[in-house]
Specification:
390 residues, alpha/beta, Aminopeptidase, Alpha-Beta Plaits, 2 domains, eight-stranded mixed β-sheet, four-stranded antiparallel β-sheet, 8 helices, binds zinc ion
Length: 390
Amino acid sequence: MTICEIMALAEKHAAWAIERRRDLHRVPELDWDLPKTSRIVTDALDEMGIGYSRIRTGVVALIQGKGPGRTVGLRADMDALPVTEPDGCPFGSTHPGRMHACGHDVHTAVLLGTARALLECDFPGQVKLLFQPAEEADGGAEPMIEAGCMEDPHVDEVYGLHVMPYLPAGHIECREGALNAASDLVDITVYGRSGHGAYPDQSRDAIVCAAQLVTALQTLVSRNVSPLQTAVLSMGTIEGGTANNVICGQVHMTGTLRTLSPELRAFLKDRICQAAQGVAQAMDCRAEVRLVPSYCALINPPQYARGVLDTARELVGEDRTHVKEASSMGAEDFAYYLLHAPGAFYHLGCGFEGQENAPLHAAGFRVNEDCVQYGIAMQTALTLKALGRR
Ligand SMILES: [Zn+2]
Ligand SMILES: [Zn+2]
């Protein structure tokens, strides 16, 4: 199938997919709690005659090709954010305090549109559609994989996309290697001994210790990590103390660690523990450190990222295809699918040309729906290529 034929197919199904996107946009839901969202998905699959199974509110659908062959997985995340949408959108959120401010309504609609396009194509093997909850929360990818979504039939190649408002619709961006960072929650409690503010010698001040510790933590990236490597450690909360004249006996603080390589991740986790315990000991206090792993880094295998960029060049041209220069320190749980099958994750421009576009997660985030046809065309083209039909 030629790229022109694929683009024509995508254009044909874009209006239908945009209607589904607006349906989804009206009913933003959070985490795993996606009854209306997954209903819109399964209604559309029923309409297309595509069989599916459920993993809680996640949906795994299978399009059977003609004859035996490989299996391609395509993933869309479905959840929204606790953001209040401003008035003015004709298909605005009907759920107060919730909004599709990360564009997952577009991802889901693009995947449904891709399914419609693929139903008109001849290919061997099969295509698995992975509609995933909870990307914005604790992560839906790992539980979906644990429940078997990458097996039976085994997914041989997997693709996913994310809309990006800083790129106009019709632009595509990808990167070989690390695209998103690994993320860890850093949770530290400093224990001292409370006492009278006038008699510091009879207490152990947890606030002074915590202040030294925050400063020490800020030297880990600047002094222990090579300037040519990338890491971020940001402390976001700190609380302690009850009164101005009481020396504080306990301080609790939390932060986030972002890294791109597993080695650096392990090294910095060790250094955080050493710094906390060392500083606490020097101040005659005690520190307890809890490091809770969140998402792993998203690493695009080079060959597959190049495949995405080659397909994008064919589809939208060289000048609208971008090689992303640096990784994002944001996290994305598509990373886990790439631990089970090769493939790639890429960015689909959804901005308005020549306008200032609000970022993802902002209440002012808007989608240029022209991006839907390009998303459908890209996913269809990548699938047909993986199945030997292009
Ligand atoms: Zn998001
Ligand atoms: Zn997102």
